[in-house]
Amino acid sequence: MQCWLVERTFDDKGMVRLVYATPDGSRRLLRERSAAQLGQYDVTAGTDADEDRLEPVEDADRRDRYAAEAERMADRHDPGDTV
User: Fold this and answer.
1) What strands, in cross-sheet order, belong to the sheet with 46-48?
2) What are the sequence ranges of the domains in the chain?
3) What is the pLDDT of residues 42-83, one digit of tens each?
4) pTM summary value
């Protein structure tokens, strides 16, 4: 299932959390990387995820925010674009 990068956060322990969500914002895929690893991996605008790896997004406001961001990313980028 096609998912789009909707959130990227950095914590104080040097970890980067990437959240990819379905276009409707109802499901997400979480990926965590160390900041040092980011140079080794391309962070892309989209990713294809197996449905069994996606988690539901329970919060309605977050679903709406994810859906809006997924739409913005899809309008501006191809899935394989590095962002």
Assistant:
1) 46-48, 2-10, 15-21, 27-34, 55-56
2) 2-76
3) 899 999 999 999 999 999 999 999 999 999 999 999 999 999
4) 0.91
